[in-house]
Amino acid sequence: MASLRFKMVEEALSHVAVPAQVPEGRSADYFGELVFGRNVMRRYLDRKTYEALIETMEHGTPLTREVADSIAAGMKQWAVEHGADHYTHWFQPLTGGTAEKHDSFAEPDGRGGVLEEFSGKLLVQQEPDASSFPNGGIRNTFEARGYSAWDPTSPAFIVGSTLCIPTVFIAYTGEALDYKTPLLRSLAAIDKAATEVCRYFDRNVSKVFCYLGWEQEYFLVDESLWAARPDLVLTGRTLMGHESAKNQQLEDHYFGAIPERVIEFMRDLEYEALRLGIPVKTRHNEVAPNQFELAPIYEETNLANDHNQLLMTIMNKIARRHNFRVLLHEKPFKGVNGSGKHNNWSMGTDTGVNLLSPGKTPSENLQFITFLVNVIAAVYKHAGVLKASIMSATNAHRLGANEAPPAIISTFLGAQISAVLDKLEASRSDAAIVFSAKNMFKMSGISHIPTLMRDNTDRNRTSPFAFTGNRFEFRAVGSSDNCADAMLTLNAAVAEQLTLFKTAVDARIESGMKKEKAIYEEVKKLIRDCKPIRFDGNGYSEEWKAEAARRGLDCETSTPLIFDRYLTDDTLRLFESTGVLSRVEIEARTEVKWETYTKKIQIEGRVLGDLTMNHIVPIASRYEAMLLDKVYKMSQIGGLDASADIDLLKKIQGHTAAIQTLTIEMIEARKKANRIENAREKAIAYHDTVAVFFDQIRKHTDRLEEIIDDQMWTLPKYRELLFIK
Ligand code: ADP
Ligand code: MG
Question: How many folded domains does the chain comprise?
């Protein structure tokens, strides 16, 4: 019997490179051609409208109805000229991913005909029928409807034949039901707090931006093989599969040539991304076989995040043209590295200064150290909720497992910066610092940072939050995550910390201390206080786990319990004082996180149960029957030794029996958990009593995969899934 698997493997092997559809010429010719950006606006809007829109984009000035109408008219004209016949409000609900509801530009005129219409009203605000989006009970408690509202700071774009208008999604009562709303609020909070601190150093600063450069990791699998793996199709990861004899031991994939089929896919993806204004730059293999990465040049955070969301949605569409499927799951395969989405994060002023980049003068360096230390202090204080912000059922496989990054948040600074901070901290007497009009202060170390440091930030790949020369890299973010959760939490934490810092420095100044000394003293205090969060060693090691616990760092590994960090007094104060999230919003969002966790584990449990009972046990039985037949016949002939076959039979027996028992127990545990009403308790039950069966069951299925006739095995094996020909 030729199994489906063999057919699919054959099909996969027949897939050849599909040439990318990229026009000749330079990327500058098509970069942003599907975006209603400033250049296009200038051409499609009259001057008054254009200026009003820029004013709104830059300063948030409300638009008049008239101006909105005129923007809508220009936007529509441009969209129609570029092949669009529909438009949609594009938003980021808490389900993850993006949502859109397409409307035709043509509207009924009420007299049986249609009217081509797209007004300012439709551009600015809509009420998607969104009762099915998760809301953690907000809309039940308050008001049944939510609405989407245009975010003019992120430009509209065209996908296929649809004009997509980036929007926020909020409940009728004003609570955020999406990722974008609180992200925007957090950017406003950090702008306000950081600008004030900047003005100690430079009175000309009037705005601080946050930048995000994400690095998207992903796996590709052949579509035919993917289709024959119900677990990949339904959960995004393999729930079973014996490790391939060759994995990533040789580490030959990382520097290896990218297969032709993949190159063509990447070319198409990059082309589409560039047309959508996503400034993609690098492509390379990652550590694991079939794992790749794509990273754009960093952008202002809100735009960067929209671009990441957009990229994730177009990836699969493009992959299918090449007979691939994209796996964005954090851990699709056991035994090989998982996928993350490093969030490179920095702050910069409207005067063009990167606040996390060492400067040329001592004053610039004091500013740099000030911001650096405040970030570290913020991460120290809110490490728990930062971890919660990147935690999920899927990312949990990555964190805490023996790979980047560990489930303990710490910061890596590198030898150079660590030495500077240690020196600063140790300089107890004021005599060590010389203040003068010319030279704000002198201290060996500080004025030398710039030249030395850049080449010196060695890459500690095991740190979840690493300083990399002119930015921090939040590495714990999962490959399937919306970056907003991590970014808004980090922004809120840093905004709060900078505000506290400003208050403390001002108090010292008021009591007669000189400004520079006041800053310096506060910085020193912070360095002392937040020392436990600094760790430059190996984040994977067992010693670190023990050491981190001794330091009092958050070492919780259970996903549902990590979500509790959202509801501590410290976190509530953090989000409320910065205006990023209200208590109702936090409670609702945490509820959604627990619910999502439960659903994911529930689905995995069901798929695993189906696979073991419908695939694995029947295959094992068939093979057993064959062996039994053989053993029986051998005994009939006599004089033959069937003991090896009998041993094998016993082994198979043992594994199948265990699988059956464990599966039944898992189903029982699920039933019990399903009866729990409370979202938190239910998630905990799923974590503690259901998910624990997955690995136990897997151990037996993977052993069976090893010993059962290869011809009979129906599921594509790791060695087939992981190596693209
Ligand atoms: P690596 O893989 O070595 O970490 P990459 O070059 O792949 O580095 O990615 C680095 C990312 O960091 C890119 O998206 C880059 O644009 C971004 N980046 C560089 N400088 C900054 C900065 N100042 N702020 C935010 N992101 C930055
Ligand atoms: Mg990186």
Answer: 3
